[in-house]
TrEMBL record:
Its EC number is 5.4.2.11. Gene3D superfamilies: Phosphoglycerate mutase-like. This is phosphoglycerate mutase (2,3-diphosphoglycerate-dependent). The keyword GTP-binding does not apply. Belongs to the phosphoglycerate mutase family. BPG-dependent PGAM subfamily. Substrate binds at R15, H16, T17, E18, C19, I20, A21, N22, R69.
Length: 208
């Protein structure tokens, strides 16, 4: 009988705190927005919760999107808890193409046909100069598999859409469930992962 090592991990997903795009109510996508004053306060709340709840215990590595709104938090986590961290380009937010920097109302007004296609075919429709949810999910799956195979308890700091895709990947749900999850700024989602099975253990929201 062949012995196979059991993978048993703690995975903590953290969405970046509030940035200018969130404050303006526009699609930030891959634009490198600064944090707002509220976002900087939320950042401190996240760090305090990680410390007070002892959720950081056992964590061995931090991975982050390369965009500033994520790596500022990842860097502070790294320094506070003496953890190594790495940038992962596949953790960057969905490329919203011509929709980036615009609100829903502005998109409906200026790109009506594309907006309707996006709403009706949100999994497969690629926004002009952007990417489809399907293609985004493929790159997210690549980085999730890479990270999990390192067999280390970890924190991932990323964007709302990317975190939802990570959850779908770990829970083995298809993309039709994308809108069944909400992830506010500063949200912390703790999952337990054993071999090929994952479940959500805890959710904390610092959106206020």
């Amino acid at each position: 009988m062949l012995y196979r090592e059991c993978i048993n991990l703690k995975i903590v997903l953290i969405r970046h705190t509030e940035c200018i795009a969130n404050e303006l109510g526009v699609y930030g996508g891959q634009v490198d927005y600064e944090l707002t004053k509220k976002g900087k306060k939320q950042l401190d709340k996240v760090i305090k919760y990680l410390y007070d709840s002892k959720i950081f215990e056992g964590i061995e590595h931090v991975y982050t999107s390369p965009l500033k709104r994520c790596y500022l938090l990842a860097n502070k986590i790294s320094k506070t808890f003496n953890l190594p961290f790495n940038f992962k380009s596949n953790l960057i937010e969905t490329n919203f193409g011509i929709f980036e920097g615009l609100s829903n109302e502005e998109i409906k007004k200026n790109f009506k046909d594309d907006y309707e296609k996006w709403c009706n075919e949100y999994v497969t429709f690629a926004i002009p100069k952007g990417e489809s949810l399907l293609n985004c999910s493929k790159r997210v799956s690549l980085v999730v598999n890479e990270i999990i195979n390192k067999n280390k308890n970890l924190i991932i700091v990323a964007h709302g859409g990317i975190i939802k895709l990570i959850i779908l990947n770990l829970l083995k749900l298809d993309l039709s469930h994308y809108w069944n999850f909400y992830c506010g700024n500063g949200s912390i989602i703790e999952l337990s992962y054993m071999d090929d099975f994952a479940y959500i253990k805890n959710i904390i929201n610092f959106n206020n």
